[in-house]
Amino acid sequence: xxxxxxxxxxxxxxxxxxxxxxxxxxxxxxxxxxxxxxxxxxxxxxxxxxxxxxxxxxxxxxxxxxxxxxxxxxxxxxxxxxxxxxxxxxxxxxxxxxxxxxxxxxxxxxxxxxxxxxxxxxxxxxxxxxxxxxxxxxxxxxxxxxxxxxxxxxxxxxxxxxxxxxxxxxxxxxxxxxxxxxxxxxxxxxxxxxxxxxxxxxxxxxxxxxxxxxxxxxxxxxxxxx
Length: 226
Prior knowledge:
CATH topology: Rossmann fold
Shape: globular
Number of strands: 11
Strand content: 25-35%
Strand order of the largest sheet: 6-7-5-4-8-9-11-10
Number of helices: 8
CATH superfamily: Vaccinia Virus protein VP39
Largest sheet: 8 strands, mixed
Helix content: 25-40%
Mean pLDDT: 93
Structural class: alpha/beta
Order of helices and strands: HEEEHEHEHHEEHEHEHEE
Number of domains: 1
């Protein structure tokens, strides 16, 4: 069953542990250390966990294996902040629970936090409750689902597949939709340093900066909405 589900997910497995999308020919996370990349790019890139507070809302393009959510949930728990953290992710091609579990097994640090995520995901739930965190995964093409979303985010994780492989996730129109659903002073971070991505974000109204990337990537991009 698990093997069949993973085949339906359209995955190849590099070194048996890193899922690679056959549709986009791109890995779901860093080949060196996906969890460290998440913390470097998406958490630190958005000034987290320092900015976390009750009601803080993180949004994401590209849910993938759920690793970013788990890293954020752990940071939230360790911060000791009271209240509820909100998380909304937009995902066109959700993975099966078995594929997510296989991918997340590479990161023992998230194992305990992953249990309730995987249990709820297996049941078909796309609204996920973790300790102190209320998460929702919006399934569908973000070009349709994000403009229709009624929420706004304090921080964005822009984690679609590579702009060279999945340009639709980095279009001027979609980056404008990200800005339209960001609070004033809200932030974004992405592993990509592609020039056209930076220009699209700047055109959408973000102040855009280049920062040191993770691992072998020289640069990443982060910024805030004026």
